[in-house]
Design brief:
19 helices, alpha+beta, 4 domains, 578 residues, seven-stranded antiparallel beta sheet
Length: 578
C-alpha cells in the first residue's frame, strides 16, 4: 500500500485528487508528515427492511465508512477498499446521541493524530500519523452529524454559509455571502438559537485536532444535481415543450427513450419511461445513474423537434456545461473561476424563465462548488455514489439472515469476514488485466493486418513478427473495473492543431501476462463541436494507430458512437482535458 501512496499528481495546473487541492497544500499534519493517512469519512442511514413495510425505522441502521485518499481513486472505487467503521441502530443514536456512538472511533483517530501507530514496512518500522481530512455525506446526514438543523425549509439551511432563505433566491455569488467559520460556529453554539443560526449543537467531530465541520465538509453532486436540480429542470423543460409549445407528445418522447441505441456503456443505465409530467411530484423518477444517462442522450431524443435558440433549451445547455466540469475526474485549477460564472448564469436564467418558482436548496449548494473544488480537488471524487453502493451487500445480508436481534453485530461480522477474504485471497490494491477469451490468429487473416503489423513492429516485443505470424487477440478485456470491447471508442491525445482525437477499437492484443494490452484503432477526427447536441461531430478516417492500455489514453472510460441525422457523434460523459 505504501508504494501506491499519492502525495501529488505532478500534473502542471491540474487537479485529480485531494492531494492536489489547496487544503492539502496548507494542512499542518500533511506538510510535516507527507505519508500521513488521509482519511475520508462517510455517514448515512440505510434501511435493512422493506422501506414501505411496517418495520420501517425500527431496524434502520446508521453506517460510518472510511476510505484512504492516499490510495489512487481508481482503487478507492472498489467496494473492498471502502471500510466499515461503525454500524449501529438509528434509534440508539436518537437516545444516546452522536457523542456516545462515535466515541470509540474518535478515540482511535485522536491516538493516530497525536502519537501515530507503528507500522512495519519491509524490514523497518515507521511511525504513521493520520487524521480525517474530509467528511462525505448526503445533505441530511451531513447536517445531522455536524450539528446543523435537519430541515431544509429552515431559514439558515446551508452548511457552508449563513445565507437566509429569501436571500438565496437572488444571491448566486458565494463571495456575497458570509461563510461559516470556526469562530462564528462557536458563537452560534453558545447562542443556542437554531432558528437564527442554523446550528443546534456542537459536533463531536470538532474534538479532533485537525478537523472542523466548517472546513472539512465536501459536496455531493449525486444528490444535489442528479437527484435534485437535474430532474426538476428537465421536468420543467419537457412540460414547456410538450404542453405549451406542443413540439411533441409525451408518448413520442417515451417511444424514443425506449428505442434509442444507448450502446454498451449506457445500456445498464437506460432511463425509464416518463409517466406523467403534469403532477407536482417527481415526474421523472430516475435513479442517479439513469438521470445522468438521460442528460447525455436528451439532445438526440428531442434535438430535431425543438428550436435551437429556445431559452429553455439554453438553460439545459448551461446545466450540461456545469455537469461537464463537476463530473470530470481531472480538472484544471482555472476551471473553478469559469464554473462559478456558469452557475451564476444558470441560476439567473432559471429565475428569468420561472420567476414564480423558488430555487430549491440544492440550487444554492451549487454556488459553493467552485471553492470546494479549489479546496479538495475534483468534485467527482467527493460524491456518495460508491459509498452508497457499499450499502447493498449489507441490505442483502439482512434479507438473507431474517433475524433482527442485534442485527448490527451480525452484519458487521459478515462484512469483516468478506473483507478478510478480499484482502487475503485477492488483490484489492493491485488489479491485473483479465482477458476472458484470447485466441491465436494469423496476422494476415485479420482486418487491416498489414497496417496492424506496421504498428506492432514499433513495439520491441513484436519487432520479429511477420505477415504470417500468429498473435493472440481478444474481443474484450477488463481492467480496473472497466470493460473494453472491440467497437468501443477511446479518447486519444490531441492532434497537431490541438483538436481532440478519438479511436474506434478494431483489435485488442493482450501482452506480457496481462500487464498491458495494445489497442489497434481506426482514428476518428473531430470536425466540430455541435453546441446544440453538446457532442463532437466526428468522421472516420483511413488512418490507424495503436494505443497502449494503460498509458496512452486521455481518459479511461470507453464511449459509443451515436448516429443522428446521417452524422456521427461522440458524447463524453464529462470534460476531458486533451
Amino acid at each position: 500500500m505504501q508504494k501506491m501512496y499519492k502525495q501529488s499528481s505532478g500534473l502542471q495546473g491540474k487537479m485529480q485528487d485531494y492531494c492536489d487541492g489547496a487544503q492539502y497544500a496548507g494542512h499542518p499534519l500533511y506538510q510535516n508528515h507527507s505519508n500521513a493517512l488521509q482519511i475520508q469519512l462517510y455517514f448515512d442511514d440505510l434501511e435493512t427492511t422493506n422501506p414501505l413495510g411496517s418495520k420501517t425505522k425500527i431496524h434502520k441502521m446508521g453506517a460510518v465508512y472510511f476510505a484512504l485518499r492516499n490510495v489512487p481513486s481508481e482503487n478507492n472505487s472498489v467496494l473492498s477498499n471502502i471500510h466499515l467503521c461503525l454500524l449501529f441502530n438509528s434509534i440508539d443514536r436518537d437516545i444516546y446521541g452522536f457523542d456516545k456512538i462515535l466515541e470509540p472511533l474518535l478515540t482511535d483517530i485522536k491516538e493516530i493524530e497525536q502519537n501515530g501507530i507503528e507500522v512495519k514496512i519491509g524490514d523497518e518500522c515507521q511511525l504513521l500519523y493520520g487524521t480525517v481530512c474530509l467528511l462525505t455525506a448526503d445533505n441530511l446526514a451531513c447536517h445531522s452529524l455536524c450539528g446543523y438543523v435537519e430541515s431544509f425549509s429552515a431559514n439558515r439551511f446551508c452548511q457552508f454559509c449563513l445565507i437566509d432563505k429569501p436571500t438565496s433566491q437572488y444571491i448566486f455569488d458565494e463571495d456575497n455571502t458570509e461563510r461559516r467559520t470556526r469562530e462564528n460556529y462557536a458563537c452560534h453554539v453558545q447562542l443556542n438559537d437554531a432558528s437564527a443560526t442554523g446550528v443546534k449543537v456542537n459536533s463531536c467531530l470538532n474534538s479532533l485536532q485537525y478537523f472542523h465541520v466548517t472546513e472539512n465538509i465536501g459536496v455531493d453532486i449525486m444528490h444535489d444535481v442528479l437527484e435534485g436540480v437535474a430532474p426538476l429542470e428537465v421536468k420543467l423543460m419537457l412540460r414547456h415543450f410538450i404542453y405549451e409549445e406542443k413540439r411533441f407528445s409525451l408518448e413520442q418522447l417515451n417511444e424514443r427513450i425506449a428505442g434509442f441505441g444507448y450502446g454498451y456503456e449506457n445500456q445498464k443505465n437506460k432511463p425509464s419511461v416518463i409517466v406523467n409530467l403534469k403532477t407536482s411530484e417527481n415526474a421523472i423518477r430516475q435513479t442517479a445513474s439513469q438521470m445522468w444517462c438521460l442528460l447525455l442522450v436528451l439532445p438526440f431524443l428531442m434535438g430535431d423537434l425543438i428550436d435551437p435558440n429556445s431559452p429553455h433549451w439554453h438553460l439545459y445547455l448551461l446545466l450540461r456545461e456545469i455537469c461537464d466540469i463537476i463530473f470530470a475526474p481531472v480538472v484544471k485549477k482555472g476551471l473553478a473561476v469559469y464554473l462559478k460564472q456558469l452557475i451564476i448564469d444558470h441560476h439567473t436564467h432559471f429565475k428569468f424563465l420561472y420567476p414564480d418558482r423558488n430555487l430549491i436548496p440544492k440550487h444554492h449548494f451549487m454556488t459553493h462548488y467552485p471553492s470546494i473544488m479549489t479546496l479538495f480537488g475534483p468534485l467527482s471524487k467527493l460524491w456518495c455514489m460508491r459509498f452508497e453502493a457499499k450499502h447493498n451487500p449489507l441490505k442483502r445480508q439482512a434479507q438473507v439472515v431474517c433475524n433482527f436481534k442485534n442485527i448490527s453485530k451480525t452484519l458487521a461480522q459478515k462484512h469483516q469476514i468478506q473483507q478478510m477474504y478480499h484482502w487475503k485471497l485477492s488483490s484489492p490494491l493491485n488489479f491485473e488485466m483479465t482477458v476472458p477469451n484470447a485466441f491465436p490468429v494469423m496476422i494476415a487473416s485479420l482486418y487491416k493486418g498489414d497496417k496492424l503489423l506496421d504498428k506492432l513492429k514499433t513495439d520491441s516485443h513484436f519487432e520479429t513478427l511477420t505477415y504470417t505470424s500468429s498473435i493472440h487477440v481478444t474481443n474484450n478485456i477488463n481492467f480496473l473495473g472497466t470493460s473494453y470491447r472491440t467497437g468501443c471508442i477511446l479518447s486519444l491525445k490531441a492532434d497537431e492543431r490541438g483538436e481532440p482525437l478519438f479511436g474506434e477499437v478494431i483489435h485488442i492484443i493482450p501482452k506480457n501476462e496481462s500487464e498491458y494490452a495494445l489497442m489497434f484503432l481506426r482514428v476518428l477526427k473531430v470536425q466540430y463541436f455541435d453546441e446544440h447536441l453538446f457532442s463532437f461531430n466526428v468522421m472516420k478516417t483511413k488512418e490507424f494507430d495503436v494505443a497502449k492500455l494503460p498509458g496512452d489514453l486521455m481518459d479511461y472510460r470507453p464511449l459509443d458512437i451515436v448516429s443522428f441525422c446521417d452524422q456521427q457523434y461522440i458524447t463524453p460523459r464529462y470534460k476531458i482535458l486533451f
